[in-house]
Each structure stands twice: as C-alpha cells, then as structure tokens.
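Reply to dn_fold:

You asked what the input looked like. This is it:
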Amino acid sequence: MKYVSTRAGDSAAQPIGFLDAVLAGLAPDGGLYVPESWPTFTHEEIAAFAGQPYAAVAAAVIGKFADGEIPTDVLEEMCAEAYGTFAHAATCPVTQLGPNLFLAELFHGPTLAFKDVAMQLLSRLYEYILRSKGRTLTIVCATSGDTGGAAVEAFRGRSNVRIVAMFPEGRISEVQRRFMTTVEDRNVANLSLEGSFDDCQAILKAMFADGQFAQAVDLSAVNSINFARIAAQAVYYFTTAVALGAPHRKVAFAVPTGNFGDAFAAYVAVKMGLPVERILVATNSNDIMARAFEDGRYSRGNVAATQSPAMDIQVASNFERLYFEAVRRDGLETGRAFRAFADTGVIDIPPGALATMRELFGGASTGEADTSRAMLATLNETGRLIDPHTAVAISAAKRTTLPSDATPLIVLSTAHPAKFPEAVHAATGVTPTFPRADRHLADKPERFDRLPADAAVVMDYVRSFAGA
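and this is what came back:
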C-alpha cells in the first residue's frame, strides 16, 4: 500500500510506503499523508474482534495499513508491549453513564491521556524502522498539553531519537507540563513558547517547509499530522463499538477535539467498514470545527484560553484530510484551498463537499459555564469525576438528538481528571486524586527553556540541541 499527499497533483510529491510515511510525518509539499485507498474489514472480521485483547485488535488494524512492511509477529509484539504499559487490563474500557450513553476511558496510559494510545505504539514503530536503517532522528512536537507528555514518555531514553516538545507558555495545566518537564533523560528538551498552540504548530510547519533545516537535523513529527497516529487511534473506535454490539448495530461517537485528529480517526474506522451513525465533533469556545460543520465556513479565529486547554486550537490540521476526502481526493483543489487558508484564514467549503461531510459529522460547541455544569452534573448523577475535555463532549452529547433512540452514544473520555485538578475542583468541589504511579510528579524538579514564538529562534535552538 502506498501513501499520497492530500495535495497530490499539486506538486511533485511521490507516493511512499507506510514506514517512510511514519518517518516523514508531513509530506514535502505541505500536505498530509493518507492511504492511496482505504483498507477494509468485512462485518464478520469486525464481529470477530469481540472478546479479543486490545493489542490483538490493534495489530489487525495497523497491519492493514502496514500491508506487510512489518512482519506480523513483530507487529503483534510491538502492540503487546505498547499496551502492556496501560494500567487497565482492557486498555480502553467502556463504562455506562446512562440509558444509551457510554464512556470510552482512554486515559489509562502512562501520562493519563488518550495520546498514550497512539504514542506508545508510535515510539516502537520508530525504533523498529530506525534500527533497520541505522538512523537517528530529531522529533519536534507541538503540543496543546497532552501530546507532548505522551511523546516525551514514549521516546525518553531511546538512543536513536532526540525529542523537543514545544508548548504554549501558561496555556496548559501544571500537571500536563510536569509530565514533560520532570523527565531527566538527555534526549529530551522542552520549550515554553510565548504564544498559543497555533503559534507552536505554525513553527513546526515552518521547520518542515525549510528543506535544508529539516535535512540537517533529520526532522520528524509525531503530532497527529503523522498518519500512524491516526491509524492507532482508529483502533479504539473498533473495540468500543464492538463492545456495544457493532457491527450488528450502529453506534455514534461524541469526540472532544481541537486538532481534529481524534475525530478523523473515527472517519478512518468508518472507511474501514465500521457502521457509525454519527460523529459529533465537540469543541470548547475555540469552535472552528463546530462552525465549519454548522455554516460551511472553516474560519480561523483568535485562540481563547479555557479550562479545556488541549482544545484551545483555531487551526485544526487534520481537517485537511477530511477536506481531501470530501472533494473526491482532488489534490489540486485541496492544495489551493489550504494555501489560501494560510494567507486568509478562511475556506468556504464547496457545497457538495459540505453535504458529504454532514452525512456523518455534526458539530457542537460548549462554553465555560456549561463545561463546569457538565462536570458537576456527571458527578451528581453517576458519582464519577470527569475532566473538562470529557465534560465538553458530554455537554454536546446531551444536546444531540440521534435519528434512532436505540443508538448507543459513546463519549470519548480523553484525559484523567487528575490532569486538571483546579478546573475539576472549581466545578465540583472535589479534588481528583492521582493514580498511585503518578503521585511523585509534584515533587520532581522541572527542566525547560523559555523562548519567543519565533521560528528562526526555535530552529536555532533545535539545531543546537540536535548537534549536541
């Protein structure tokens, strides 16, 4: 199987294999890699996932995308190791909140966030590829909070990878920051940048656009622009849906999202054959995706700081992948639209493409007061503490009417409440407790550098770190 850029036809970018796509992250023309065609499962194959260990389902799903580039036994071992790091035996268990309302708990990994699901596997993919090629890479990660911690934890101490995590100063929780900055391994550097996550993401894209720099440091990325992240996240859509009766009945998902990678992973599962009635994209007040589905205009706004900081994003990189699919894989149109967006901050989605998106996707935004109310109501009604990102999705889910009352609606719970203790306590009066393994975080010294949100300055820093 080959992977093509979403801007294919608009450039000289050539199709590449799965392993090369993993290492590259971003295509050289600025587009994002997607498979040339979507691999599929039959209903019988999906039904057979019932009762299987999570790692076995992951190996089956990733195996479709790797298409023989990784031996089956090696891939199965990678998945077993990756998900052996999770604290729950089911990896991503499903619990019930109410009639036909369920919670997919994605926060049982080492850094208590859903990003662990993909990152633990991605680090092992990198190790396998780099050992065979005898290469060392520099990974630069732009994070709105959880990706950085998951990446640092997954790649720390690995001899063939250097990692630099960039996060926006003062715009992530202390716990999110400490999962990055308390790591002592010499292959890890952390940067606190003056600006928003969108500034961090723009700097990362500028690094890839500078071919000389990217080659000099052997640059790679593990943000959700890397398709392997999306493929790994598609797995829990299969496992949660099958647990609730798929493929014999459809399910629906409410996905708290900022960069749209998690929601696009649901789309990938659908393209692979999973019957899904609706994907509800739940945003906070940084509602670029909710507005896009509602009024057909993908329009960048100013980033507002909220109590759900991992979603404080106004440029959702993975929307380019969905746009590419909705315009019938027209790379020329996709390249034109997103180059124009970089200049103007606006894309008016073509009517046909918008209609295609709306067949599966809907959007809903939730303000700060409703987010707090959702945390308190969930505690009062179920006895469970939830984090503010999960609360955004629950609030959106309760305001959504599905075509069938019998359709299970699965809310993705993307972080443990202990990652956002101040917000949870303010809303509920209860301070969440850390799992035992993570209670040492508050006592460890931090290590990070502060820089302006200036691409040239950051690139000099990365070049120096890579050289050292």
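The mean pLDDT is 93.
Hope that clears it up.
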